[in-house]
Amino acid sequence: MTERPHRPRRPASLDPAQADRIAGGADPALRLRAAHATAQAVLRRGHESDVDVETVDRLVRLVETEGLEVVASLWADSDAASLPGALWRLYVLREWIRRTPVEVTARYALGAQRAEVDDAVAGVPTPPTPQEVAALADAVLAGAVTADLDVALDRAAAFYRVVGTGTALDADLHDAPHGPEAAHATRSAANLVRTGEELRDAARRARAGTLE
Predict the structure, then answer these.
(1) pTM to 2 decimals?
(2) Helix/strand/coil (H, E, C) string of 59-70?
(3) Residue 24: how many CA atoms within 13 Å on its side-chain side?
(4) Which of 9, 25, 127, 159 could share a disulfide with 122, CB 3.0–4.6 Å?
(5) What angle do CA 146, 161, 139 make, to 5 degrees?
(6) Angle subtended at Cα 41 by Cα 39 and Cα 47, rounded to the nearest 5 degrees
(7) What secondary structure letter does DSSP report for 86?
(8) What's the rounded Cα separation, in Å, for the pair 181 and 57?
(9) What is the arithmetic mean of pLDDT over 167-192?
(10) Rounded distance between C-alpha atoms, residue 91 and residue 68, angstroms
């Protein structure tokens, strides 16, 4: 992918549920082929023997350089149990943290008190800072595109589950009223946990060599 001079305007804020609603292109068959081809190209470039730090950094910052809508048009509609679908969820995680680092960090810190096993797998320092959470997202993506995809997916899956747990606890602590606000918090927590489960399944497929 190359820099586009007239990039579509990015939304002001983002969470994984919003990202899933971004529409793809018009032709499903073409989108499917393009999704798999571009996802495989990212991994091939990252695994080349002569890959350097600058190239890895560009791969990690793909959404920043190309624009969220451009990457979404390729990958957002992909099945969660596919390579483009798994990579999309990793990039969405990094973008979400990049845009709302304090909020994500607070939810993670709260969820880590309950989801201790997932916290250990994610590998975020305790207590986490926004900088450390952002560094985790970069490390996960760098690992996914250059080294052990399954390990990166497991770490991201654990992170999503911890933040989902924290989102649910945050609603309880603030005594969110019944109605739209409570329903939104419940849906958000459930979506985050579900994404974590999808990534855990993708990690299993990656280890088995069936994530394509």
Answers:
(1) 0.84
(2) HHCHHHHHCHHH
(3) 21
(4) 159
(5) 25
(6) 110
(7) H
(8) 38
(9) 76
(10) 9
Exposed e or buried b for every residue in 34-60, given b needs 16+ CB within 10 A?
bbbebbeebbeebeeeeeeeeebeebb
Angle at 103 between CA 99 and CA 71, to 5 degrees: 30
Residue 15, classed as helix, strand or coil, is coil
Cα separation of the two ends of the chain:
20
Task: Convert the pLDDT of each residue in 163-174 to its tens digit.
Answer: 999 999 887 766
Helices (H) and strands (E) in the chain, counts: 11, 0
- Please tell me whether residue 27 adopts helix, strand or coil conformation: coil
Of 60, 46, 52, give the one whose Cα is nearest residue 135.
Answer: 60
How does pLDDT run across 113-130, given as a tens digit for each residue? 999 999 999 999 999 999
**What does the chain come to in residues?**
212
Question: Hunting for tokens 């890959």 — which residue is that?
Answer: 51
Residue 5 has pLDDT above 50, yes or no: no
Is residue 193 within 8 A of residue 154, CB to CB? The reply is no
What is the identity of the amino acid at 164? G
Cβ burial of 178 (10 Å; 0-12, 13-18, 19+) is exposed
